[in-house]
Amino acid sequence: GGDMVMLTLGTGIGSGIIIEGRIHHGKHEIGAELGHMIVDDGGELCNCGQRGCLERYSSATFLSLYAARLIESDSRPSVLRDWIADGAAIDARRIVEAYKQGDELATEVWLRAMKFLAIGCINICRIFDPDEIVLAGGLVNAGKDLLEPLTALYHQMHWKLTDVLTPIMLARLGSDSGVIGAAGVAWSAMREHPDCAAHLKIARENR
Q: Which pTM was predicted?
C-alpha cells in the first residue's frame, strides 16, 4: 500500500496518516495530531494549551479571529469592514470571497494562513516523505484559491536538496471525506477483527 497524509481543514485541523496502506495511530494512540504540530515557536496560544499550533494559524476558526483582529487594528479600507458594518459575520467563506476580489486585508489574512499551512506540509514531507498530501474539509471549497497560493509557498520554502516530490492535492470528496474515511476505518476494523461485527450486531439488537 501507499503512504498518504490527509489534513482536514475545518473549524480545527484534523489529520490522518497512512503508512504502507495502514492507518498510523502512534505508540500511545495520540499520533497523527498534525494540527498541533508547532509551526511558530512561542506563537499564538492554542486551545490545547500549546503555543504556535498549525490549527491556530490555518483553520477556518482562526481565519475569522485574525481577520477581526486585523480589521480592528488596521485602517486600510476593506470590503470585510463594510460587510461587518452591514451586520455580516466574517467567516472563512467571506474571507475567500474578499481575497478573490483583491481586498488587501483579506489577502493578508488568507496568505498568512497559506504560509503556515505550507510550513506544515513541508514538515510532513521531512518526517514522512509520503506519496501525497491530501487536503479535505470546508476550506477546500476555495478550490484553486487555496491550492494555487499554497502550492507556490510550498515550492518556494521547500527543501533545495531535491525536487518537490510530494504533491498537495484537494480531496475529491471535499468536506465529506472525513465521514467517508471514518466509515472506511470501521469497515477495515470489522474485516480484520470479525468479533467487531458480532459486537455491533449485538449492540443494534439491544437498542
A: 0.84
